[in-house]
Specification:
By secondary structure, this protein is of the alpha+beta class. It has 10 helices and 4 strands, in the order H-H-H-H-H-E-E-H-H-H-E-E-H-H. The protein has a 4-stranded antiparallel beta sheet, with no helix packed on it. The longest helix is centred in the C-terminal third of the chain and has 69 residues.
Length: 436
């Protein structure tokens, strides 16, 4: 995009209302009011960065992604732990104190306490930490993509409000001109220089213009409220943005997000490969046993031979790998990689096409605005000549209003074309991934 075309687009955006108002000579009061207009409305700085920050701060999805980022960060606690799961404590108490139990054991008591924990497999901890890191990176890129989406919604709402404002300007212009012509027509009828039908025609045009103004003012207020709802109160005033220079397509948020998802899927596959079995458990236990033991030989003297035993040991549980456990996990990890890779490739095609289409659209909008500007100039000259001819009695009121309708159509088309240039600029910046 050349510097000249960018400057022309910005000039079109700033001067649209000026050209529209120039079609009817403003009164001295209007000139003074325009001179007192706030400087903020005449500034050339873009409002997008400030308004985007306001919109992002209240966006629900942004807050949800930020919460997801915090939740994912908490998984580092597991990666930094000496065990992939929770340590455990266990115990056993067994007694046999019944005197009716047969045998030579009486008052048997067994107490066991065990403490253990699951163990990391070789390479599992590093693979798990990699999944946390890549997941955080993916959330960051999704935040950038959501920011771009918010910028797109803001741009659409801005230009809806600007288009409605331009329609209000055209409608006000129409009302002012209709009232001026109607007053002149009434005076001519009173002097006998025009028929009563001309006065009725003028009154009908004035009422039609006032009706249109009431309608478009309502639409403009709605569009303004919708924009302020996105920004949290900032109105769509000033200028939005200018054409941004092209950047490397690889830095586009719509490509960074699926690329980050692909990196995360690769890390997940490495974690699956590093976890062929569930985590083994290791535990240390201590057992204490004692009982009363009596001889059951009737030839021997009855005596209590008490026994005590204390045991300390290690207990290990190692699961075995099975195809039923591992193959579904590996297949799911590969399927996720294939999915995100396909999404990335599709995103590349879509982004490339959108940038090309946006550039073509901007060039067409600029060309259409130039033609519409020339047509408006011709229509203004044509109306001035027709108005003079009407005052001289050379044409009828019907012919004057027919020319006036041509001028109104030219004003509407130029106002719409000027807004279309701004829309095309915003869509090009959006397609290039610009979200300040």
């Amino acid at each position: 995009m050349s510097v000249e075309s960018s400057g022309y687009a910005q000039e079109q955006n700033d001067q649209t209302s000026t050209v529209i108002e120039a079609s009817v000579k403003p009164s001295p009061k209007k000139k003074k009011a325009r001179a007192r207009a706030p400087a903020a409305k005449r500034q050339r700085g873009g409002a997008l960065p400030k308004h985007l920050e306001m919109a992002v701060s209240i966006d629900a999805q942004i807050r949800s992604l930020e919460a997801q980022f915090r939740a994912t960060s908490a998984r580092y606690a597991t990666a930094n732990s000496i065990t992939p799961g929770s340590p455990y404590l266990g115990g056993l108490q067994r007694n046999n104190i019944s005197s009716n139990v047969t045998g030579n054991l009486r008052n048997y008591n067994e107490t066991e306490i065990e403490a253990g924990m699951p163990l990391w497999l070789p390479g599992q901890r590093d693979a798990f930490e990699a999944t946390v890191t890549t997941s955080l990176f993916e959330v960051e890129q999704r935040l950038a993509l959501r920011r771009l989406e918010v910028a797109g919604a803001l741009r659409d709402a801005w230009w809806n409000a600007q288009r409605a404002a331009r329609e209000v300007e055209v409608a006000r212009n129409r009302v002012a001109t209709a009232r001026d012509i109607g007053a002149d027509m009434t005076r001519r009828v009173e002097l006998g220089d025009a028929a009563q039908g001309d006065a009725l025609l003028a009154k009908n045009e004035t009422l039609a213009a006032e009706t249109e103004l009431a309608q478009v003012e309502g639409s403009a207020k709605v569009a303004r409220v919708n924009y302020m709802a996105l920004t949290g109160g900032a109105p769509p005033e000033g200028t939005l943005e200018s054409v941004r220079p092209a950047t490397d397509i690889e830095n586009h948020p719509a490509l960074r997000a699926p690329r980050a998802a692909l990196v995360r899927a690769e890390a997940q596959l490495r974690l699956v490969d590093a976890t062929p079995i569930d985590s083994p458990d290791i535990g240390i236990f201590g057992r204490r046993e004692y009982n009363d033991q009596y001889s059951t030989d009737p030839t021997q003297q009855l005596s209590n031979q008490r026994t005590d035993s204390t045991t300390i040991g290690v207990r290990i549980r190692i699961p075995l790998p099975t195809a039923g456990r591992n193959e579904p996990r590996i297949a799911a990890a590969h399927a996720e990689m294939d999915r995100v890779r396909a999404e990335y490739e599709r995103a590349v095609r879509v982004v490339t096409a959108e940038i090309k289409a946006s550039r073509v659209t901007l060039a067409a909008a600029q060309r259409a605005a130039e033609i519409a500007k020339s047509r408006l100039s011709v229509a203004n000259d044509q109306f001035e000549l027709s108005l003079k001819s009407f005052k001289l009695g050379e044409i009828s009121a019907f012919d004057l209003y027919r020319v006036r309708q041509i001028q109104l159509e030219a004003q509407r088309i130029y106002a719409n074309a000027a807004v279309n240039v701004g829309v095309a600029i915003s869509r090009l910046n959006q397609a290039q991934g610009y979200a300040p």
